[in-house]
Amino acid sequence: MKNIPLAILDEHPDWLNPLYQEFQKRGVPYQKIDISSAAYNPMDTNVLPFYVNRLSPSASKRGYQTAFNYTLNYLMYLESLGSRVVNGSHSVILETSKAHQSSLLRKLNIPQPRTIVLNDLALLDKYLDEFVFPVVVKPNCGGSGLGIQKFNTKKSCWKREMKARLSCPMKKSYYSKSLFSQKIIILSV
């Protein structure tokens, strides 16, 4: 393993084939780690010095629901051992967390829609009057628009209807954004 300078964490069977072909053409040794079905021993300290993470948040739409959580934990493990990781754990969290994105935008003084984070849909009624409808609710479960739902009126956003319409294979967090105003709500359940 010490002769391999880098590893590519990849969950898609075809997307990175041009990269792998170029590595082979140039004689660059690498290790492909298929994160759609993988395992590691957290007690093992024998890791490579450099990794490139190519996890896509849309992996769950292609049947790899466990790839996200596994890869995030694996990246944190690699980073804890001093490996350099392109698209490491902080990138994965930022890419997939609307709450984290909102915090970063605030820190950088970048204008953004107003944001509210909830961890209980029972609190929704308290905030519904602050919305301009229609709103869009985005579960915190990957990318590519997975689970987005539109609610045209306050009445359609009642807890029971929202719970019935929203589904998410992973984390139970929801983000709601008004379509025509600068208001946003993040619901984490």
In short:
By secondary structure, the chain is of the alpha/beta class.
- Shape summary: elongated
Radius of gyration in whole Å, from Cα?
A: 20 Å
Count of separate structural domains? 2
The oligomeric state of the chains shown is: single chain
What is the name of the CATH topology of the largest domain?
Rossmann fold
Q: DSSP strand (E) fraction?
A: 15-25%
- What is the total tally of β strands? 9
> Stretches where pLDDT falls below 50 for ≥5 residues?
169-189
Structural class: alpha/beta
Helix share bin: 25-40%
Biggest sheet overview: 5 strands, mixed
Strand order of the largest sheet: 5-9-8-6-7
What integer is the average pLDDT? 78
Q: How many H/I helices? A: 6
Distance between the termini: 42 Å
Helix/strand order: EHEEHEHHEHEEHEE
Any idea of the CATH class of the largest domain? Answer: Alpha Beta
Notes on the protein architecture:
Helix content is 28%, strand content 19%. It is α/β, with parallel strands linked by helices and 189 residues long. It folds into two domains: 7-95, Rossmann fold; 112-188, Dna Ligase, domain 1. It has a five-stranded mixed beta sheet, with no helix packed on it. A four-stranded parallel beta sheet has the order 2-1-3-4, with helices on one face. A hairpin with a 5-residue loop joins strand 8 (173-178) and strand 9 (184-188). The longest helix has 14 residues, at 67-80. The radius of gyration is 20 Å and the shape is elongated. The N and C termini lie far apart (42 Å).
